[in-house]
Amino acid sequence: MGLPTFRRAVPDVVAGRVGLDRPIRWVHATERADAGSLLRAGDLLLTMGTGLPDDDDGLASFVDALAEAGAAGIVVELGRRWSADLPAPLVDACERHGLPLVVLGQETRFAALAQEIGERVVDRQLTELREAQRVHETFTELSFGQAGPVEILQAVQRMAAGPVVVENAQHRPLDYFAGPDDAGGFLDGWPARSRRVEVAGRTGWDAANGWLVTRLGTADQVWGRLVIGSPQPPSQRLVAVAERAAAALALHRLHDRDRGTLMRRTHLELLSGLTDDPDSDDVLRRCEMAGFPVRRRSFAGVVVRPRIGAAAPADLDEVAATVVRAAHGLRLPALVCEVERDLRVLVSAVPTADADDLVDRLAARVLAQHDVVLAAGRVVGERSAIARSVTEAGQVADAAPQVRREHDPDVHRLADLHLRGLLALLGEDDRLRLFADRELAALKGHDRAEGARTDLLAALRALVMHPASKTEAAASLHLSRAAFYDRLARIEKILDADLDDPDVRVSLHVALLADELSGGAAK
């Protein structure tokens, strides 16, 4: 504690050092043995010990009461009751509870010390109030300006100085903004990690991941969560940022439902009707009235998804407007709607047209303006198959790589994804997840134990990605051939398997892809 009066008293921490980071709410000076009943959480006790119990059990009980009350610590002035070392029972009890116990080697005026600490506490509280006011003003301005999710999350990123993620109820990231010190990897294995994180109440901190997590939606209707990277326990200010951001996102969602997204809302209702009851006369009539022909047509479902973590995040409203303009320019009837930060698009083409080519041309116009992932389901000729095409487009989008690669097509289709596409279709099948866990558990355990010294999963991935050349596989990891061969030998020993056996390689390749798609990211 950097206070002049405190420093002059020659303080020495004799127990409970692990609790020194506890915030001090207020300070009290007393010699009463029942001080625990008078304190509140965060109170610091100043005492000379003259009124404390004489027996060992009494001293231990005194500390137990302070710990139960949530006291910030005990400061004891030597000279009146104890002239040298404090009693061992007092020290041991404080150490057991992690309650800081500080002795003052020089006589000091408790009134001056209490005043100095109190002034510092008040200054801190005023600072927190000013910060809270700034948070309030920031989000009030965003709300009045009807800011979209991108603007809201960018404000959170600035105020939190850390990574920010919005996920849906299925734990899929919808938006991501990296923190200033984020070296990458914050999203690695996200769905699997997120499923294991549960917080009580609306907002909570997960120490294992270093996440501040806030519920989006009501307790009965949760549509997602806001996650802010916070390696240390979050301050009240950061909690306020998270909760105000959640409220702003909810307000935007409400505005989206009740204001200028009438067309998208109507299109969502029509698309839902076509997937749920494609032969309904009412749905067919409404589609025709909306300029979306559904009789004697071919259909293709398309998903347009902003790339997570892109340098310039795509605004979904702008992307939707571009899709509408592109479809209009191609004279291609399309339903365009938003579902959980995805654009779902259904195009309607005459049977003689090449619907896949029309989707490709639509995609080219969109990609010229926005960094997004486009995925398409198979073209279908029956209204009853529309749901399958739309669902397939979403599964392909889930399986498509988030980082654009040199040879990637503009539009991802199931046929382009090969094995990855098949695994995407299997989705959340528990049997697939159990298979991946069984195949990779031993290697994952080894890598966790070894830390950064070796990465056998990376070596295995390089092997299956470069099946024709172990030299290229080693080069992809910047390893010498000898070092790479050594890692392969260790993998074979751990798995008790021959990596040259085609069946073994195929099995491990499938496990790696399944693990990646389920969010394990082979960690």
UniProtKB/TrEMBL annotation:
Annotated ranges, domain Purine catabolism PurC-like: 3-119
Gene3D superfamilies linked: PucR C-terminal helix-turn-helix domain (1.10.10.2840)
Coiled coil: none
Domain of life: Bacteria
InterPro entries listed in its UniProt record: CdaR-like_regulators, CdaR_GGDEF, PucR_C-HTH_dom, PucR_C-HTH_sf, PucR_dom
Span of domain CdaR GGDEF-like: 277-398
Domain PucR C-terminal helix-turn-helix: residue ranges: 456-514
Assigned protein family: Belongs to the CdaR family.
PANTHER family from the UniProt entry: CARBOHYDRATE DIACID REGULATOR (PTHR33744), DNA-BINDING TRANSCRIPTIONAL ACTIVATOR ADER (PTHR33744:SF1)
The protein's name: PucR family transcriptional regulator ligand-binding domain-containing protein
